[in-house]
Each structure stands twice: as C-alpha cells, then as structure tokens.
Design brief:
The chain is mainly alpha-helical and about 160 residues long. The chain is about 70% helix and about 10% strand.
C-alpha cells in the first residue's frame, strides 16, 4: 500500500496553518478516497469562510460600539458580551484592544472611500453630488460620539494617523 502526502492549497483562515491530508492509492477504493478528500476540503473552505464572516462581524460590531459609546468606554468584555461570543473567541481574531480599534477604524475607512467614489461617479451634476455627499456624511456624523475623534487622537495615535 502506497501512501502519499498531498499538501492542499486551502489554508485555515486563522493563523495560516497548512493542512496535509494522507491519500491512499487503492484500485478498488480510489474514488471513495477522492470523495472523502473532496468533502474534507469543502469543509475546510466552509469553515474558513465562516471565520472570515465572524471576523468581519467583529470589526463592524466593534466599530458601531466605538462610534456610539466612545473608544475608551468600550471594553473587550463589552464587545464579546454584546456579540454573544466568548472573550477567547474574540482574542482569536484580535491581539488586544488596540488591534481591535485599528481593525474597526480601518474597516470604516475601507467602506467609506468606495462609497464616496460611487457618489462622485453617480449620474447628475456637481450640486447633486454635493447633496448626496452631504447626506452620506451627515448619516455618519449622527451615528458617532463626538469624543471618538479626541480619544483616537490621544490614546491610539497610530490608528488616528491611518484614519
């Protein structure tokens, strides 16, 4: 019986662990083994996508909490409790609060810039674009605590410079 290690190009989304499967070559059971490998690979891809979705939800939820309550008043416990996940799960996606703040506000920038570009390319004249930009920016300003700017600037200067 010949056993061959087959590296997969699929990588676990968390921390980049490589995965190796053993594939046995049998004349009778070759298709069955391929099906099992296919199911394992499909499961790995599914889990990786779920982890990406959870990471995205963590960034969005943390950003929403930071914008409403202020960066300093939100703790890692608050984020985990509000999302109904454990702190251990939260720490699988972020190293510490500074990392969470950076990821959350990077997400804000990454979603705001494309929206502004869409508005600028939209049909209409310059006045229509200004009204659309005004509406978009007012909705953003209404949803955040005024202390966020000060707190980012004072307590998270590297994130402030990026934003």
């Amino acid at each position: 019986e010949k056993v061959e290690s087959m590296p997969l190009s699929c990588v676990s989304a968390r921390k980049g662990h490589n995965l190796f499967l053993k594939r046995r070559k049998h004349k009778k059971h070759g298709n069955e083994t391929k099906q099992k490998c296919f199911h394992v690979v499909t499961l790995i891809i599914f889990v990786a996508e779920m982890e990406k979705e959870l990471e995205e939800k963590i960034r969005q939820h943390a950003l929403q909490m930071f914008m409403q309550l202020g960066v300093r008043s939100v703790t890692m416990d608050d984020v985990a409790r509000d999302m109904a996940i454990s702190k251990k799960t939260l720490y699988q996606y972020v190293e510490n609060k500074a990392d969470l703040v950076e990821k959350a506000f990077t997400h804000l920038v990454d979603t705001t810039i494309p929206r502004v570009r869409e508005i600028r390319k939209a049909d209409g004249n310059a006045i229509d674009h200004m009204f659309m930009l005004d509406e978009f920016m007012c909705s953003m300003v209404e949803s955040h605590n005024p202390a966020v700017k000060f707190q980012l600037h004072k307590y998270y200067p590297s994130t402030w410079r990026k934003v």
